[in-house]
Amino acid sequence: MALIELSGIERRFLLGDTTVHALAGLDLQINAGEYVAVMGPSGSGKSTLLNLLGLLDRPNEGTYKLEGRDVTTLSPDEQATVRSTRIGFVFQSFHLVPRLTAAENIALPMTLAGIPAAERNKRVAQALKDFGLENRADHKPDQLSGGQRQRVAIARATIMQPALILADEPTGNLDRHTGEEVVNLLEALNAKGVTLIVVTHDQGMGARARRQLVMEDGRLKTDSLQTPISNLAEISG
Amino acid sequence: MRLTDTLRFARDAATGYPMRTTLSVLAMSIGVAAVVILTALGDGARRYVVGQFSSLGTNLIIVLPGRSGTGGFNPANAITSTPRDLTIDDAGSLRRLPGARRVAPLAVGTSEINYGGKLREVMVAGSTAEFIPIRNFELAQGQGLPEEDWNRGSSVAVIGAKIREEMFGANPAIGQLVRVGDRRLRVVGVLKSTGQGLGMNTDELVIVPVSLAQAMFNSNTLFRIMIEANSRDAIPGTKDQVMETLKQRHRGEEDVTVITQDAVLATFDKLLGALTLAVAGIAAISLAVAGILVMNVMLVAVTQRTGEIGLLKALGATARTIRLAFLAEAAMLSAVGALVGYLLGQLGAFALRQAFPVFPAYPPDWAVIAGLSTALATGLIFGVMPARRAARLDPVQALMKH
User: For chain A, what is the domain count?
Assistant: First the structure.
C-alpha cells in the first residue's frame, strides 16, 4: 500500500482578481521508504505540494490519503495529531525557537504532544548522541553554527519517529560541505525506512534521490519512475 | 501539552522578551498598588475617625444646646423663640436618670495661664469630677477635680501634659498656684500626654470646676452635657429619658439636641466606608487600563512570534494548545504584576504608617482581594483575544514570516 496517495489535487489561490493554479490535477503515489526529490522552478508549486503533504494546507479539490486514510476531511485538530505523530518537518531557515536550548528545541514536538518529561529527556539524550550534539545541548540556536542548527532541526523532526520527513530546501542556507553532512544525515534516516521527500533547487542533491519529481506550473512535468534518469538532466537542466 | 509544560513555555516566552514583559507587569503592578494604597488611605481615614470618636468615651450620649431639627408649631414657640441655656442644674437633673451612670457638664472657653512670669493661652474646660472618667482621660500625677457641689467650684485645676512641661519644666507642678484668667488656682493633677485628639487637645487643656469656668467666662450656659449610659443597650432608652427630662425642665420646649456617640460613629463609618469604596473604584480603572495594555502586549507578541506559532502548528500543536500557551502567558504577566503591585502597595502603606504613626493606613482585606482578582480577571479576559488570534493563524502563512 502506498504511503501517500494524491488524486486529482487542485489548489487555487486568489491573487487580486486572478486565480492562480498552484497545483492542477495532480496525481501522485509515494510508497513507504521512498526517497523523493521534488524539483522545478520557483512558482512551480513545489512548496504548495509540500505544505499539502504536511497537512499545513488543504486542497480545493481531490483527495489525499496518508497510510490509506483520507486526511483531507480531518478537522484541524485531527490533522495536528497526524502532523505530530506521522510527519517531521525540516525547513530551509531551520525554524528553531530562539529562546529554547538545543535540547528543548528537539523536545518541543514531544512537549506539545504531552509526553512526560522523563521519557522526553531519555529520547532527547539519545537524539543528541545520534546527531553529535551532546555538548551543544544547552546552547541556544544563536550559539550554534548553521550545520548544528539544521542537525537540531532534523533531530526535532525525527524525535516523534514519523513515517514521513518533509524537507524544504534543507541545505539552502548551508555551505556545500555542511550541506553534504546534512544530506548524509537525511539519507541515513531514509536508509532506516523513513520516507523522505526533499524539495530542492540543487541539481546535485536532487540527483541523489532515487526518484525525482519535476514540477512546472502546478503540474507534474516528469516523474523519474516513468522517465529514465538519463533524460532527466536534459529536461530540468 | 501538559500543564507544567504550558506554564514553563509561557514563562520562557515572557522572559524571552524582557522589555515588553517588564512594561506590562509594571502597568499591572501600578494598578494593583494604586488600589492597595488608596484603599489603605481611605480605610485608614475611617479607622482614624472612628478610633478618635471611640476615644471620646464609651456609651456616650451628648446634649447640645439648641435644636437641630425643625419642629412643627409648638405652643412654647409662641411664648419664646430663643433657646434656653443649658444649665448646670439641667445637667444635675440628669444624674437621677436610672440609665445614666455618669454625667458631666462641660463649659469651654479660652483663657491665659500664668505661672512664674510665663504666660500662654490655653483652652479651659469647666466640668466636674466625672469628666475625666467619662472621657477616658488618665492622670499622670495627682488627682482629678474634687467631688463637690457643682455650683460651688473650688479653686483647683487639672492641667495638660504640655502645659505642665512649659510652665513648670522639671519642677513639681502639683500643689503650685497658677493664675488662669483672673483666678488663682491650685494645680491638683496633671493629665497623661495623649497627643492630638479629635476636637480637643488634652495636652494643652486646663480642667477647672464647671461653676468656676462659668464665672470666668461670665456665662450661664453649658457647651455640652455628657452622659455615660450604663450599657450599650441602655443608650436609646437613656437618650429618650434625657430628652424628656430636659423638655420638662424647659417648659415643654425641645430646645436641645441629643446625639449618641453610636449614631455619630455609624455615620462616619458609613461615610468614610463609601469614600474608600469610591476611591477603590477609581483605582480599579487603572486596572482596566493595565488589562488593555496586557492585551496590546499580547497582540504584539502574537505578531512578533507568528513564525513560531506556525512552527508549533507544523510540529503538531492543536489550536487549543496554542490558545492555552498564550492565555497562560497573559495570566502570568497579570499575576506577577498583581503580586508585585500588592507588595508595592503594602510597602507604600507601610511607608505611610511610618510617616504618620497615628494614621492606621492598612488596606482592607476586601480591597486587596478585589484588586488582585480584578487584575487576574482583566489579564485573562484581555488575553483571550490575542490567544484566539494566535490559534487561528494559518500555518503556511505563519511559517513564511520567520
Answer: 1
Does B9 contact A at CB distance below 8 Å? yes
Whether residue A213 is predicted with pLDDT greater than 90 in this model: the reply is yes
Q: Looking at residues A143-170, what average pLDDT do you find?
A: 94
Q: Among B15, B317, B395, select the one facing A112 at the smallest CB separation.
A: B317
B332 within 8 A of B9, measured Cβ to Cβ = no
For residues B372 and B33, what is the distance between their CA atoms, to the nearest angstrom? 10
Q: Does A57 touch chain B (CB under 8 A)?
A: yes
Which pLDDT belongs to residue B213? 92
**Whole domain around residue A16: which residue ranges?**
2-236
Burial class (CB in 10 A: 0-12, 13-18, 19+), A192: exposed
pTM of the model: 0.72
User: Chain B closest CA to A231's CA: distance in Å?
Assistant: 34
On the question of pLDDT at A237 being above 50, the answer is: no
Q: Are B313 and A89 within 8 A, CB to CB?
A: no
Per-residue pLDDT tens digits for B46-66: 888 888 777 777 788 989 887
Contact A114 B12 (CB under 8 A): no
Secondary structure class of B63 (helix, strand, coil): strand
Which pairs count as long-range contacts for B172-179, CB under 8 Å and 24+ apart, including other chains? B173/B141, B174/B141, B174/B142, B176/B115, B177/B115, B178/B113, B178/B114, B178/B115, B179/B113, B179/B114, B179/B115
How far apart are alpha carbons B137 and B134 in whole angstroms? 8
Whether B307 has its CB under 8 Å from any CB of chain A: the answer is yes
Q: What CATH number corresponds to the domain at position A61?
A: 3.40.50.300
Question: Chains A and B: how many Cβ contacts under 8 Å?
Answer: 71
